[in-house]
């Protein structure tokens, strides 16, 4: 079965063709970074308009790359939520109308399920059950994954998601948008141990997260550093790098402590990381060390499939279409959509 995947939940337009037998056939991506950078964050209306501009050219390009015609597509998968409603609607409208025109089924995909299953796009695939750490711009959560569509929520962020904390702290430091990769790059020049950030909520039982305090801690640290003797109210690039490193270490360490606790609680040795922050090299390194000490296994998608893409949507949709799932013509895009509401496949 050949499935067309369409991702348009936020600031990236992603299109992919996935074959149930051969795997990924082709994929294309258009990032809206340049559009939103001047505003310091995603402007929803501009995002929707840009998706409309790029969806069809990318579709044509992906078909060309895979060297197939539209009529070879057996089903269409599209992100129906969670995300920006206008952005979701643009992809959903293309998916639904194309499916109707071609007389093929279309299926809704939960964006976070796409992320969670993204490691399965790689050659080395995790076996169920496993613990998954999903760390993106909008969500941070730990889930116990018993099978496709069977997600038990173990813990989640009570305020800012990890990616959001990266983005907001980067903005405070004047590092621009998107903040995660910019802050990670700055942290590479940082010196260890100059600043020490707290590890929020690790001394309390449970698997929930809270990252908004780290952003405030970063602000207070910046203000104190700017008022030190000789600083003249300014932060040198070295101070910014030292703060970036301390922040990044605090996030990675906190996530590691919670992952380790989740694995122990579930008596499980397999950990999967996915979502945009999963592209962070320090986080991957810290989790790899922890997993090695425990004799477990760690899985993550290649960097380009950590952040938003059409391949993960095509794959997740393929699993659902193969199980016979489809929805009627009516478009039901959702800004919010709890993952636990998903049906087992
Ligand atoms: O999964 P994603 O592409 O979009 C959502 O579904 O939200 O995640 C985007 C988030 C942003 O907050 C971005 O700053 C963060 O992932 N991110 C990173 C890195 N690359 C992307 N955070 C830290 N280090 C990175 N290398
Ligand atoms: Zn995402």
Task: Please give a structural write-up.
With 345 residues, this protein is α/β, with parallel strands linked by helices. 42% of the residues lie in helices and 19% in strands. It has 10 helices and 10 strands. It has helices spanning 33-37, 44-66, 85-102, 111-117, 162-172, 179-187, 212-226, 237-265, 281-294, 310-322; strands spanning 2-7, 12-19, 23-31, 75-81, 106-110, 130-135, 140-147, 150-156, 270-274, 297-299. The strands form 2 sheets. A 5-stranded mixed β-sheet has the order 3-2-1-4-5, with helices on both faces. Strands 8-7-6-9-10 form a 5-stranded mixed β-sheet, sandwiched between helices. Helix 9 (281-294) links the parallel strand 9 (270-274) and strand 10 (297-299). The model has no long low-confidence stretch (mean pLDDT 97). The structure holds 5'-O-[(R)-(carboxyoxy)(hydroxy)phosphoryl]adenosine and zinc ion. Zinc ion is lined by residues 111, 115, 136, 275-276, 308.
The coarse overall form would be globular
Given as residue ranges, the uncertain stretches (5+ residues, pLDDT < 50) are: none
Tally of DSSP β-strands: 10
DSSP strand content: 15-25%
N-end to C-end Cα span:
17 Å
The hetero molecules present are:
5'-O-[(R)-(carboxyoxy)(hydroxy)phosphoryl]adenosine, zinc ion
Instruction: Write the H/E string, N to C.
Output: EEEHHEHEHEEEHHHHEHEH
Summing up helix and strand content along with how strands pair, one would put the structural category as: alpha/beta
Residue-averaged pLDDT? 97
Helix content: 40-55%
Count helical runs. 10
Q: For the CA atoms, what is the radius of gyration?
A: 21 Å
Strand order of the largest sheet: 3-2-1-4-5
Main sheet properties = 5 strands, mixed
């Amino acid at each position: 079965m050949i499935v067309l995947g369409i991702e348009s939940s936020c600031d990236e337009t992603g299109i992919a063709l996935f074959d149930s037998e051969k795997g990924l056939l082709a994929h294309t991506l258009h990032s809206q970074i340049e559009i939103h950078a001047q505003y310091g964050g995603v402007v929803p209306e501009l995002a929707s308009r840009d998706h409309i501009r790029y969806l069809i050219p990318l579709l044509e390009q992906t078909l060309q790359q895979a060297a197939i015609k539209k009529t070879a597509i057996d089903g269409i998968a599209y992100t129906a939520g969670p995300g920006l409603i206008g952005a979701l609607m643009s992809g959903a409208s293309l998916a639904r109308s194309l499916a109707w025109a071609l007389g093929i089924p279309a299926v809704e995909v939960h964006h976070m399920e796409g992320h969670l299953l993204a490691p399965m796009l790689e050659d080395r695939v995790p076996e169920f059950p496993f613990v998954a750490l999903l760390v993106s711009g909008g969500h941070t959560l730990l889930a116990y994954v018993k099978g496709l569509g069977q997600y038990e929520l173990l813990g989640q962020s009570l305020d800012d998601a990890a990616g959001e904390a990266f983005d907001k702290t980067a903005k405070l430091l004047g590092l621009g948008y998107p903040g995660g990769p910019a802050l990670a790059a700055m942290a590479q020049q940082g010196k260890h141990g100059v600043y020490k950030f707290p590890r929020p909520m690790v001394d309390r039982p449970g698997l929930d997260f809270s990252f908004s305090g780290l952003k405030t801690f970063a602000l207070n640290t910046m203000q104190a550093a700017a008022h030190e003797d000789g600083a003249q109210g300014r932060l040198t690039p070295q101070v910014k790098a030292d703060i970036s490193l301390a922040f990044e270490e605090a996030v990675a360490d906190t996530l590691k402590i919670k992952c380790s606790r989740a694995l122990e609680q579930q008596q499980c040795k397999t950990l999967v990381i996915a979502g945009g922050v999963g592209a962070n090299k320090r986080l991957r390194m810290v989790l790899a060390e922890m997993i090695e000490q425990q004799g477990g296994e760690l899985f993550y998608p290649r960097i380009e499939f950590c952040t938003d893409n059409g391949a993960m949507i095509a794959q997740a949709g393929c699993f659902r279409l193969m199980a016979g799932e489809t929805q009627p013509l009516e478009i039901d895009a959702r800004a919010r959509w709890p993952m636990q509401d998903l049906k087992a496949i």
